[in-house]
Amino acid sequence: MKKVNFKWFDKTIRTLFFVFVISLGFFLSLRSIDRWILVPSLEYGTFHYPPKTTLPFFRNGEVEMGFTNEFGIREPNNEKQTNCHYLLLGDSQTFGSGIFLKDRFSEILNAETECHWFNVSVPGYTLENEFSMYKKIDGSIPFQKVFLVVYGNDVFETGDTPDYIHFAKRQKWYREFFAFLLPEYTRSIWKREYFQTIQVRMTEEMSRISAQETLPSKNLRQTTSAKKILPNYTSFKTLYSISPNYFFESLNVKSVSNQNFDRWQQVFFRLMEDVTKRNVKLTLVYIPLDVEFDPNRLEIYKEIGFPMDRNWLTGDSELIIELNKLATQFNVPIIDLRHSFRGAKDLLQPEDIHFNEKANRLIADTIKKSL
Description:
- The chain has 17 helices and seven strands.
- The protein is an alpha/beta fold.
- The protein has two domains: 13-41; 69-161 and 233-370, SGNH hydrolase (Rossmann fold), CATH 3.40.50.
Protein backbone atom coordinates (compact mmCIF):
# COMPACT_ATOMS: atom_id res chain seq x y z
CA MET A 1 0.00 0.00 0.00
CA LYS A 2 1.27 3.42 -0.98
CA LYS A 3 2.06 5.71 1.94
CA VAL A 4 0.16 9.00 2.05
CA ASN A 5 2.36 12.08 2.25
CA PHE A 6 0.62 13.99 5.04
CA LYS A 7 3.27 16.71 5.02
CA TRP A 8 2.48 17.52 1.40
CA PHE A 9 -1.24 17.44 2.21
CA ASP A 10 -0.84 19.79 5.18
CA LYS A 11 1.30 22.19 3.14
CA THR A 12 -1.31 22.27 0.36
CA ILE A 13 -4.10 23.00 2.84
CA ARG A 14 -2.08 25.78 4.42
CA THR A 15 -1.31 27.29 1.01
CA LEU A 16 -4.95 27.16 -0.07
CA PHE A 17 -6.05 28.65 3.25
CA PHE A 18 -3.45 31.42 2.90
CA VAL A 19 -4.64 32.19 -0.67
CA PHE A 20 -8.25 32.21 0.54
CA VAL A 21 -7.48 34.65 3.38
CA ILE A 22 -5.53 36.97 1.07
CA SER A 23 -8.29 36.85 -1.57
CA LEU A 24 -11.00 37.47 1.02
CA GLY A 25 -9.03 40.40 2.47
CA PHE A 26 -8.51 41.86 -0.99
CA PHE A 27 -12.21 41.45 -1.78
CA LEU A 28 -13.35 43.05 1.49
CA SER A 29 -10.86 45.89 1.02
CA LEU A 30 -12.30 46.62 -2.41
CA ARG A 31 -15.82 46.57 -0.99
CA SER A 32 -14.77 48.99 1.78
CA ILE A 33 -13.15 51.32 -0.77
CA ASP A 34 -16.30 51.07 -2.86
CA ARG A 35 -18.59 51.88 0.08
CA TRP A 36 -16.64 54.49 2.04
CA ILE A 37 -14.28 56.18 -0.44
CA LEU A 38 -15.74 55.98 -3.94
CA VAL A 39 -19.48 56.23 -3.21
CA PRO A 40 -19.40 59.54 -1.28
CA SER A 41 -17.79 61.29 -4.28
CA LEU A 42 -19.81 59.73 -7.09
CA GLU A 43 -21.09 61.73 -10.03
CA TYR A 44 -24.65 60.76 -10.84
CA GLY A 45 -25.45 62.35 -14.18
CA THR A 46 -28.65 63.86 -15.45
CA PHE A 47 -30.76 64.58 -18.54
CA HIS A 48 -32.91 67.47 -19.68
CA TYR A 49 -34.88 68.99 -22.54
CA PRO A 50 -32.94 70.36 -25.54
CA PRO A 51 -31.48 73.70 -24.38
CA LYS A 52 -32.71 77.06 -25.71
CA THR A 53 -35.46 75.49 -27.76
CA THR A 54 -39.16 76.12 -28.26
CA LEU A 55 -41.03 72.89 -27.56
CA PRO A 56 -44.66 71.70 -27.42
CA PHE A 57 -46.07 70.64 -24.05
CA PHE A 58 -49.42 68.92 -23.73
CA ARG A 59 -52.53 68.89 -21.60
CA ASN A 60 -55.08 66.24 -22.65
CA GLY A 61 -54.00 66.62 -26.27
CA GLU A 62 -54.02 70.43 -26.16
CA VAL A 63 -50.75 72.08 -27.06
CA GLU A 64 -48.87 74.82 -25.26
CA MET A 65 -45.54 76.02 -26.63
CA GLY A 66 -42.75 76.57 -24.11
CA PHE A 67 -39.14 77.70 -24.13
CA THR A 68 -36.15 76.02 -22.43
CA ASN A 69 -33.15 77.84 -20.98
CA GLU A 70 -29.44 77.03 -21.36
CA PHE A 71 -29.79 74.12 -18.90
CA GLY A 72 -32.65 72.48 -20.79
CA ILE A 73 -35.18 73.52 -18.13
CA ARG A 74 -38.57 74.94 -19.05
CA GLU A 75 -38.66 78.66 -18.39
CA PRO A 76 -41.56 80.50 -16.73
CA ASN A 77 -43.49 83.15 -18.62
CA ASN A 78 -42.13 86.06 -16.59
CA GLU A 79 -39.00 86.37 -14.46
CA LYS A 80 -39.60 88.43 -11.36
CA GLN A 81 -37.17 91.16 -10.27
CA THR A 82 -36.54 90.37 -6.62
CA ASN A 83 -33.79 89.58 -4.14
CA CYS A 84 -35.65 86.51 -2.89
CA HIS A 85 -34.94 83.34 -4.90
CA TYR A 86 -36.05 79.78 -4.12
CA LEU A 87 -35.09 76.58 -5.93
CA LEU A 88 -37.50 73.68 -6.50
CA LEU A 89 -36.00 70.21 -7.10
CA GLY A 90 -38.39 67.46 -8.14
CA ASP A 91 -39.70 65.11 -10.82
CA SER A 92 -42.72 65.16 -13.14
CA GLN A 93 -45.10 66.08 -10.30
CA THR A 94 -43.09 69.24 -9.58
CA PHE A 95 -42.57 69.88 -13.29
CA GLY A 96 -46.34 69.87 -13.81
CA SER A 97 -46.78 67.09 -16.36
CA GLY A 98 -50.15 67.21 -18.08
CA ILE A 99 -51.14 70.77 -17.08
CA PHE A 100 -50.46 74.22 -18.51
CA LEU A 101 -47.56 76.30 -17.26
CA LYS A 102 -49.68 78.87 -15.39
CA ASP A 103 -51.33 76.09 -13.35
CA ARG A 104 -48.11 74.59 -11.98
CA PHE A 105 -47.78 75.20 -8.26
CA SER A 106 -44.39 76.84 -8.89
CA GLU A 107 -46.02 79.42 -11.19
CA ILE A 108 -48.81 80.03 -8.67
CA LEU A 109 -46.13 80.70 -6.06
CA ASN A 110 -44.33 83.02 -8.48
CA ALA A 111 -47.54 84.98 -9.00
CA GLU A 112 -48.66 85.09 -5.37
CA THR A 113 -45.46 85.49 -3.33
CA GLU A 114 -42.70 88.06 -3.31
CA CYS A 115 -40.03 85.51 -4.23
CA HIS A 116 -39.00 84.00 -7.55
CA TRP A 117 -39.29 80.22 -7.63
CA PHE A 118 -36.89 78.44 -10.00
CA ASN A 119 -38.47 75.12 -10.98
CA VAL A 120 -35.61 72.98 -12.34
CA SER A 121 -37.60 69.74 -12.36
CA VAL A 122 -37.80 67.37 -15.33
CA PRO A 123 -40.15 64.38 -15.79
CA GLY A 124 -38.39 61.15 -14.88
CA TYR A 125 -35.93 62.70 -12.46
CA THR A 126 -34.61 60.79 -9.48
CA LEU A 127 -32.81 62.39 -6.54
CA GLU A 128 -29.56 61.54 -8.36
CA ASN A 129 -30.62 63.69 -11.33
CA GLU A 130 -31.93 66.44 -9.08
CA PHE A 131 -28.63 66.66 -7.20
CA SER A 132 -26.70 66.69 -10.49
CA MET A 133 -28.85 69.51 -11.85
CA TYR A 134 -28.44 71.38 -8.56
CA LYS A 135 -24.65 71.14 -8.97
CA LYS A 136 -24.86 72.06 -12.65
CA ILE A 137 -26.70 75.33 -12.07
CA ASP A 138 -24.60 76.21 -9.01
CA GLY A 139 -23.30 79.75 -9.46
CA SER A 140 -25.55 80.49 -12.43
CA ILE A 141 -28.86 80.83 -10.62
CA PRO A 142 -28.94 82.59 -7.22
CA PHE A 143 -31.08 81.04 -4.48
CA GLN A 144 -31.33 81.31 -0.70
CA LYS A 145 -33.49 78.26 -0.10
CA VAL A 146 -33.93 74.82 -1.68
CA PHE A 147 -37.26 72.99 -1.61
CA LEU A 148 -36.59 69.29 -2.20
CA VAL A 149 -39.88 67.78 -3.36
CA VAL A 150 -39.98 64.08 -2.53
CA TYR A 151 -42.63 62.10 -4.37
CA GLY A 152 -43.81 58.77 -2.97
CA ASN A 153 -42.03 56.68 -5.63
CA ASP A 154 -38.63 58.41 -5.40
CA VAL A 155 -36.94 55.56 -3.53
CA PHE A 156 -38.29 53.04 -6.05
CA GLU A 157 -36.98 55.13 -8.96
CA THR A 158 -33.56 55.42 -7.30
CA GLY A 159 -33.31 51.65 -7.35
CA ASP A 160 -32.92 49.25 -10.25
CA THR A 161 -36.03 49.96 -12.30
CA PRO A 162 -37.03 47.55 -15.11
CA ASP A 163 -35.69 49.95 -17.76
CA TYR A 164 -32.33 50.23 -16.01
CA ILE A 165 -32.13 46.44 -15.47
CA HIS A 166 -32.66 45.98 -19.23
CA PHE A 167 -29.74 48.40 -19.81
CA ALA A 168 -27.52 46.64 -17.25
CA LYS A 169 -28.14 43.19 -18.74
CA ARG A 170 -26.53 44.33 -22.00
CA GLN A 171 -23.13 44.99 -20.37
CA LYS A 172 -19.99 43.04 -21.35
CA TRP A 173 -18.79 40.21 -19.13
CA TYR A 174 -15.65 42.06 -17.96
CA ARG A 175 -17.80 45.01 -16.83
CA GLU A 176 -19.99 42.61 -14.87
CA PHE A 177 -16.85 41.21 -13.20
CA PHE A 178 -15.79 44.76 -12.30
CA ALA A 179 -19.29 45.30 -10.89
CA PHE A 180 -18.78 42.25 -8.65
CA LEU A 181 -15.64 43.83 -7.16
CA LEU A 182 -16.87 47.45 -6.94
CA PRO A 183 -20.68 47.20 -7.17
CA GLU A 184 -21.76 50.74 -6.22
CA TYR A 185 -18.99 52.52 -8.13
CA THR A 186 -19.64 50.44 -11.25
CA ARG A 187 -23.37 51.01 -10.87
CA SER A 188 -22.77 54.76 -10.80
CA ILE A 189 -20.86 54.55 -14.09
CA TRP A 190 -23.62 52.48 -15.64
CA LYS A 191 -26.26 54.86 -14.27
CA ARG A 192 -24.54 57.86 -15.88
CA GLU A 193 -24.42 55.98 -19.17
CA TYR A 194 -28.05 54.98 -18.72
CA PHE A 195 -29.06 58.61 -18.14
CA GLN A 196 -27.20 59.51 -21.33
CA THR A 197 -29.33 57.00 -23.27
CA ILE A 198 -32.40 58.75 -21.82
CA GLN A 199 -30.95 62.07 -22.97
CA VAL A 200 -30.53 60.74 -26.52
CA ARG A 201 -34.05 59.29 -26.58
CA MET A 202 -35.50 62.47 -25.10
CA THR A 203 -33.78 64.70 -27.67
CA GLU A 204 -34.85 62.49 -30.57
CA GLU A 205 -38.44 62.29 -29.32
CA MET A 206 -38.75 66.05 -28.77
CA SER A 207 -37.29 66.70 -32.23
CA ARG A 208 -39.80 64.31 -33.76
CA ILE A 209 -42.75 65.86 -31.93
CA SER A 210 -41.61 69.41 -32.69
CA ALA A 211 -41.36 68.59 -36.39
CA GLN A 212 -44.99 67.48 -36.55
CA GLU A 213 -47.71 69.87 -37.63
CA THR A 214 -49.84 70.42 -34.53
CA LEU A 215 -53.46 71.59 -34.42
CA PRO A 216 -54.24 74.63 -32.26
CA SER A 217 -55.83 73.88 -28.90
CA LYS A 218 -59.25 75.22 -29.84
CA ASN A 219 -59.47 72.99 -32.92
CA LEU A 220 -58.52 69.98 -30.87
CA ARG A 221 -61.35 70.66 -28.46
CA GLN A 222 -63.86 70.98 -31.30
CA THR A 223 -62.87 67.65 -32.85
CA THR A 224 -62.94 65.74 -29.57
CA SER A 225 -65.80 63.24 -29.37
CA ALA A 226 -68.54 64.07 -26.87
CA LYS A 227 -69.06 60.37 -26.13
CA LYS A 228 -67.73 59.44 -22.71
CA ILE A 229 -65.11 56.70 -22.82
CA LEU A 230 -64.99 54.32 -19.88
CA PRO A 231 -61.57 54.12 -18.20
CA ASN A 232 -59.51 51.01 -18.85
CA TYR A 233 -56.42 51.95 -16.79
CA THR A 234 -54.02 50.66 -19.44
CA SER A 235 -51.03 52.50 -17.96
CA PHE A 236 -51.71 51.03 -14.50
CA LYS A 237 -51.99 47.52 -15.94
CA THR A 238 -48.72 48.03 -17.83
CA LEU A 239 -47.05 49.16 -14.60
CA TYR A 240 -48.34 46.02 -12.86
CA SER A 241 -46.97 43.80 -15.63
CA ILE A 242 -43.43 45.17 -15.21
CA SER A 243 -43.40 46.11 -11.50
CA PRO A 244 -46.11 44.18 -9.62
CA ASN A 245 -44.62 45.16 -6.25
CA TYR A 246 -44.33 48.85 -7.18
CA PHE A 247 -46.19 50.31 -4.19
CA PHE A 248 -44.59 48.09 -1.55
CA GLU A 249 -41.13 48.84 -2.96
CA SER A 250 -41.95 52.57 -2.98
CA LEU A 251 -43.39 52.94 0.52
CA ASN A 252 -41.94 50.03 2.56
CA VAL A 253 -38.40 51.38 2.46
CA LYS A 254 -37.13 49.46 5.49
CA SER A 255 -38.80 46.06 5.21
CA VAL A 256 -38.80 45.69 1.40
CA SER A 257 -36.45 48.18 -0.32
CA ASN A 258 -33.84 48.91 2.30
CA GLN A 259 -30.95 48.96 -0.20
CA ASN A 260 -32.74 51.45 -2.45
CA PHE A 261 -33.44 53.69 0.52
CA ASP A 262 -29.78 53.54 1.58
CA ARG A 263 -28.82 54.70 -1.90
CA TRP A 264 -31.39 57.49 -1.77
CA GLN A 265 -30.07 58.56 1.63
CA GLN A 266 -26.50 58.71 0.32
CA VAL A 267 -27.56 61.29 -2.27
CA PHE A 268 -29.63 63.18 0.29
CA PHE A 269 -26.64 63.35 2.68
CA ARG A 270 -24.51 64.87 -0.08
CA LEU A 271 -27.17 67.44 -0.90
CA MET A 272 -27.55 68.27 2.79
CA GLU A 273 -23.79 68.65 3.16
CA ASP A 274 -23.60 70.96 0.15
CA VAL A 275 -26.45 73.28 1.14
CA THR A 276 -25.02 73.48 4.67
CA LYS A 277 -21.62 74.58 3.32
CA ARG A 278 -23.32 77.20 1.14
CA ASN A 279 -25.45 78.41 4.06
CA VAL A 280 -28.57 77.64 2.03
CA LYS A 281 -31.70 76.52 3.85
CA LEU A 282 -33.40 73.26 2.86
CA THR A 283 -37.07 72.35 3.17
CA LEU A 284 -38.51 68.90 2.44
CA VAL A 285 -41.86 68.72 0.68
CA TYR A 286 -43.54 65.32 0.62
CA ILE A 287 -46.00 64.65 -2.22
CA PRO A 288 -47.80 61.36 -1.46
CA LEU A 289 -48.66 58.55 -3.82
CA ASP A 290 -52.35 58.37 -4.71
CA VAL A 291 -52.76 55.27 -2.49
CA GLU A 292 -51.94 57.45 0.53
CA PHE A 293 -55.01 59.63 0.19
CA ASP A 294 -57.41 58.32 -2.49
CA PRO A 295 -59.39 55.18 -1.47
CA ASN A 296 -60.85 54.80 -4.97
CA ARG A 297 -57.41 54.58 -6.53
CA LEU A 298 -56.29 52.09 -3.92
CA GLU A 299 -59.24 49.81 -4.82
CA ILE A 300 -58.47 50.14 -8.55
CA TYR A 301 -54.84 49.11 -7.99
CA LYS A 302 -55.94 46.26 -5.73
CA GLU A 303 -58.33 45.02 -8.43
CA ILE A 304 -55.51 45.08 -10.99
CA GLY A 305 -53.42 42.90 -8.68
CA PHE A 306 -51.05 45.21 -6.79
CA PRO A 307 -50.49 44.25 -3.14
CA MET A 308 -52.06 47.03 -1.05
CA ASP A 309 -51.95 48.17 2.57
CA ARG A 310 -55.04 50.13 3.62
CA ASN A 311 -53.05 51.66 6.47
CA TRP A 312 -51.42 53.91 3.85
CA LEU A 313 -54.68 55.87 3.53
CA THR A 314 -54.77 57.02 7.14
CA GLY A 315 -51.47 56.06 8.74
CA ASP A 316 -47.77 56.52 8.06
CA SER A 317 -45.78 54.47 5.58
CA GLU A 318 -42.20 53.48 6.34
CA LEU A 319 -41.08 56.15 3.87
CA ILE A 320 -42.75 59.07 5.65
CA ILE A 321 -41.51 57.76 9.02
CA GLU A 322 -37.93 57.76 7.73
CA LEU A 323 -38.33 61.20 6.11
CA ASN A 324 -39.52 62.60 9.42
CA LYS A 325 -36.48 61.07 11.13
CA LEU A 326 -34.18 62.74 8.59
CA ALA A 327 -35.97 66.06 9.04
CA THR A 328 -35.45 65.80 12.81
CA GLN A 329 -31.84 64.67 12.47
CA PHE A 330 -30.87 67.61 10.26
CA ASN A 331 -33.31 70.08 11.80
CA VAL A 332 -35.00 70.86 8.49
CA PRO A 333 -38.73 71.58 8.08
CA ILE A 334 -40.92 69.09 6.24
CA ILE A 335 -44.18 69.95 4.50
CA ASP A 336 -46.29 66.79 4.47
CA LEU A 337 -48.96 67.22 1.79
CA ARG A 338 -50.86 64.13 2.91
CA HIS A 339 -52.58 66.35 5.49
CA SER A 340 -53.87 68.63 2.71
CA PHE A 341 -54.80 65.85 0.30
CA ARG A 342 -56.64 63.55 2.68
CA GLY A 343 -60.28 64.52 2.61
CA ALA A 344 -59.92 66.38 -0.71
CA LYS A 345 -61.38 64.90 -3.90
CA ASP A 346 -60.61 64.97 -7.62
CA LEU A 347 -56.89 65.76 -7.37
CA LEU A 348 -55.66 63.44 -10.12
CA GLN A 349 -55.67 63.55 -13.89
CA PRO A 350 -57.88 60.87 -15.51
CA GLU A 351 -56.20 57.44 -15.56
CA ASP A 352 -52.94 59.06 -14.53
CA ILE A 353 -50.77 59.38 -11.43
CA HIS A 354 -50.10 63.07 -12.08
CA PHE A 355 -51.91 65.83 -10.25
CA ASN A 356 -54.40 68.19 -11.86
CA GLU A 357 -54.86 71.95 -11.50
CA LYS A 358 -56.85 71.63 -8.28
CA ALA A 359 -54.07 69.65 -6.60
CA ASN A 360 -51.42 72.12 -7.75
CA ARG A 361 -53.45 74.97 -6.26
CA LEU A 362 -53.65 72.99 -3.00
CA ILE A 363 -49.87 72.39 -3.02
CA ALA A 364 -49.18 76.09 -3.62
CA ASP A 365 -51.52 77.16 -0.82
CA THR A 366 -49.97 74.69 1.62
CA ILE A 367 -46.42 75.84 0.82
CA LYS A 368 -47.47 79.50 1.12
CA LYS A 369 -48.80 78.87 4.63
CA SER A 370 -45.45 77.42 5.65
CA LEU A 371 -43.42 80.47 4.56
